Structure prediction request, 259 residues.
Amino acid sequence: MTNLPPSSTRIIPDITSVPRHIAVIMDGNGRWAKQRLMPRVAGHQRGVEALREVVKACRDMGVEYLTVFAFSSENWRRPADEVSFLMKLFLKMLEREVAKLHQNDIRLKIIGDRSRFDAKLGQAMQDAERLTASNSALTLTIAANYGGRWDVMQAVKAMLKEQPQLVQSFTEEDLQPFFSMSDAPEPDLFIRTGGEQRISNFLLWQLAYTELYFTDTLWPAFDRIELNKAIASYQKRERRFGRTSEQLQRNAGQRDQNA
Ligand code: IPE
Ligand code: IPE
Ligand code: MG
Prediction:
């Protein structure tokens, strides 16, 4: 448990020019399809292609973690035929893409409440995770039936199950190992496509100090060039983690002197 990445509210993380961890809300599939007079689900299909390109681009750039929101705990509210299409697409994607991910040394993880998926999909998720578990070029995490509130709740429950004495009092460090993303550093950059500026119950705890980037580009049209724009925006930000700009400049000056 001591090997877990540090929490940004406890220790100031090291900042790298290329974000180590990018989290994405892939939004706008339905509107992309509608603009082309196609059914919404055609947008989801094209969304898989956009994801493929972004995964490749991240791997090439040396991003260590890419976490994408594929299906929220609230997306069950959609029409039944759209939900069922998404489940089938998910299964198809696992069946078709996992071998390629594995060849490219990509580790696949799925986070979210799996109890609502059918047995076949559940099994495919488990097989994909097992096959790719020791890969290390990039960790691709797919959030499916995921909700940020669910994650906080399940973490507290799991912690208390394992350490009932903590019911009296516990710390951030006690809780941290139980989050779905506990082995990843907190996201450096969050991207939401599709024009909405909200979190929609994605990673709530982990986005505490993440840089947020919103674009009107619809997810199926998001490519390497769009990703580079997001990263360029990130690289212009000053990540202060509560400190002043002057403090950061002083530290940078000291580093230059020591070099
Ligand atoms: C995101 O695109 C994909 C999922 C939520 C599964 P949407 O389907 O939300 O597309 P819009 O927002 O309706 O355009
Ligand atoms: C968020 O998109 C979830 C995913 C992209 C999977 P939504 O389209 O469901 O979000 P809202 O409903 O517009 O907030
Ligand atoms: Mg949407």
Summary: The chain has eight helices and six strands. The mean pLDDT is 96.
